[in-house]
Specification:
alpha/beta; Maf protein; 6 helices; 7 strands
Length: 216
């Protein structure tokens, strides 16, 4: 099957978002160490992570093309056999009081995160990167959304944790899952909170010349 985008992420949520608006997507996880540098701002961290994921995958794709003597992708909706021209990667963090809350290591840490988020507003920051394999050109951006959580009792948090969707989510909740009922309000991009700001991504793809794969 032909595909239009390579997603440098193992996240099924990001893949679902892209496929929902009409893209065909091939997933190649960009496996890297996600560690903040001293005094690194969250927006710079997620942009660095997104770019590193993408460049890791770009090198793998170029190596595969060179080994098989495939030509560079031509970026055509009618291209049935060649590789995709565009690589997309992203990284998302939850920020509370200036502290980055990543994915919890265990249920105890997940409980602590949700207890801290209860009845408070936090920010969700996603950095994303787009790479054009044909022109060796990249674009990168960070998008911020504000999320207000409802007040949660201890039993309510424990019941939510029992659902089993917390451990692979930044901040220990899934806005697109059962955790949606924990959200009082969102200011900014909803898809950004899920893990990929579609509005800004589409604008970047259009600016970089991906007109023939856009679903509109």
């Amino acid at each position: 099957m032909a595909y239009q985008l390579i997603l440098a992420s193992a996240s099924p949520r990001r893949k679902d978002l892209l496929e929902h608006i009409g893209f065909t997507v091939k997933t190649i996880p960009g496996e890297i160490e996600e560690k903040m540098a001293p005094e690194e701002e969250p927006t710079e961290f997620v942009k660095r992570m997104a770019r590193t994921k993408v460049l890791t995958v770009v090198q793998r794709v170029k190596g595969t093309m060179a080994a098989s003597e495939q030509p560079l992708p031509a970026s055509s909706r009618g291209n049935r056999e060649g590789p995709a021209r565009w690589v997309v990667g992203a990284d998302t963090v939850v920020v509370l009081d200036g502290e980055v809350l990543g994915k919890p290591k265990d249920l105890d840490q997940a409980f602590d995160m949700l207890q801290r988020l209860s009845a408070r507003e936090h920010t969700v920051v996603t950095g994303f990167c787009v790479f054009d394999l044909l022109k060796n050109k990249e674009g990168i951006q960070a998008v911020v959304s504000r999320v207000k959580m409802k007040r949660m009792t201890r039993p309510e948090i424990e019941k939510y944790l029992a659902v089993g969707e917390s451990l692979d989510k930044a901040g220990a909740y899934a806005v697109q899952g059962v955790g949606s009922y924990l959200i009082d309000s969102i200011s900014g991009s909803y898809s950004n909170v899920v893990g990929l700001p579609l509005c800004q991504l589409m604008e970047m793809l259009e600016e970089m010349g991906a007109h023939d794969i856009l679903p509109y």
